[in-house]
Input
Amino acid sequence: MAEVAREPKKKTKRYRALRMNLYFLIVFLLFTALIFKLGIVQIVEGDKHRQDAEKANAKTAYYPTPRGKMYDKRNRVAVDNQAVPEIVYVSTSKTSAKDKLKTAKNLAALIHIDTEFMKDRNIIDYWLAAHPKKAEKLMKDSENSLKPQEVYKRQIERVPKQEIDAIKQNKKELEIAAIYTRFSSGNAYQPQVVKSMDPNKLNGNGNSGSLLDEHDNNKQKPKSDLTYEEVSVVSEHLKELPGIDVINDWTRKYPYDKTLYSLFGGVTTPEQGLLGERKDYYVTRGYSLNDRVGKSYIEYQYEDYLNAHKEKVEYVENSKGEVVSQKPVDEGSRGYDLQLSLDMELQSKVEKVIEKELRRSRAAGNYMVDRGFAVMMDPNNGDILSMAGKRIDLETNKIQDFAIGAFTTQYEMGSSVKGATVLAGYQSGLPHYKTFVDAPLVFKGKTRKQSWTQMGAITELTALQRSSNVYMFHVAMHIAGITYVPHGTLPAGLDDIKKMRNYYAQFGLGVKTGIDLPQESAGMQSNPQMVGGLLLDFAIGQFDTYTPLQMAQYISAIANGGYRVQPRIVTSIHEPDSKNKIGKAIEQRDIKILNKVNNSPSDFDQVHKGMKLVTSSPQGTAYSTFQGSGADVSGKTGTAETRYYGTNKNWWGKETYNLTFVGYYPSEHPRVAFSVVVPSVQDDHDHVSKNIAKGAVDAYKELEKKYNKK
Output
């Protein structure tokens, strides 16, 4: 029995030995595989992995690429780009203050740099970098335990004033300090502009069409006076100037000079960088802090499209932080191009008409006239064909572009709103050809409200033709449900004005037009405690204020039969084309109808008849201007009694008139609608607004004939 019991123990030992051998075999195979893999990694793939290790230390620098262009309605370049040579500096992650100082001294021996931007703090930073031992002596022994940030803060406070003054008196050292400041104004691998060429001096023509200095009036920007001689000498010494490079940057160029200058908007400088209020927005979209962005109007509104895809240059560092290679990895590309609704040739002609008439009116004695506007709009699709605004500097008598005033400033418009008043009357039940007697209205307290002349019994057609105030007063009272009683009260309330505002809003008066531009004004409304006669004033454009653009949208709605169309400046977005022509469209900006005015076609026919009489019949208020012109124009004149609130505060409160005109051409199937506004005229008989309207229509007709021939 004992022999039989030993057999299972032998089997257990053999099983254990077999299992141990199997474990050793598996370990051996794994070890062999590991050695084999290491051999492949080190011998076969060694170079590749070494390159990958180096690339882990690769840094990317971004270099400027041109913004998208702007083309006008006829595919002419309205806003272009111009190459500007610049000296830039790029530091690495291992660049020390000592390295920057050495390069700054060498560069200062080759170029001259403006130092006006230098402040005491800039000089202090330079002094601390240039005199490290003296900087150490500014600290006390008891302060050895302070953190570096606190040490630096105290050193800044303790730099002797005489040291700062000495640098200010040493012109050459101050230039070195200025260059050092430029070097230190950004992060590693972020090109810093040291000096750039004045774009107005490129090619030796003295006038490149660039308005950089006016758009980018920034005291922190180095003077744009880099010369070709400096470009040449720096290029020859690049090996002695580590981090320095000569590149082409870009600035905006305006082929039509200052035409529409204010509307295009400005672009920030590298020193200004991202707009403070939108910094987070830009950073989340990959912008660097010193990137230039559109800062106003079209450039601002369409930044996401105009912004260029920057050129990328890769710098590879070794383990010591030294740059071992440098190569472009992305050439970058220009931003998308915009096609504008504007006709730049028409715009130029209309601006000249405004300038001529403003000067003529001032010479005739209207010395307070300092601005004028004319907006031309396609009433069928909302295209702004011309948005002209001019403002006179009363001190220098020079005329400046003020196109933005067409949608950012507002004025009482006078009788030119009477088309909306008549149509509001129709909506409230007033029949066509309703007769009212144009005679003075007398209310309690001997308050008189009257027209410029007594017209007797008239209909709405004559009221528009001759610009009757009394007829519009009756319309307003009809809307408010008030029966006129001679020498009685006028029991109108704020609700009645609000009702009138709701009617007017259908045409775009008192509400934003929706144009694709920032900072649009909706006009100005006030809510008086005592309404009374203000309801009547409202009906003739003497209470609320509107912008010239709102007036263009309003008359467009009348011209097209009742559709309030959203105005647009940009009609399409295009891929950049290298052949200096507009590229393939990637996005179309659709026509947008904002609302339909609640009037019938026959209502509009009546108003069309009245507005045609304004220009074509002897008693029409614009007949003397348009008779014999051959221009089939319909429209409405306006004269608003107001006070001066312009740029000369000495004249504030003086009685003046705003002269306006709205219209469309031709009377049948209009192709263009327009508004003209000239504030602060002393003589209400001056034809300045009507003359501008006629000149604008004549320019449109002339170009229409020219384009049709082509």
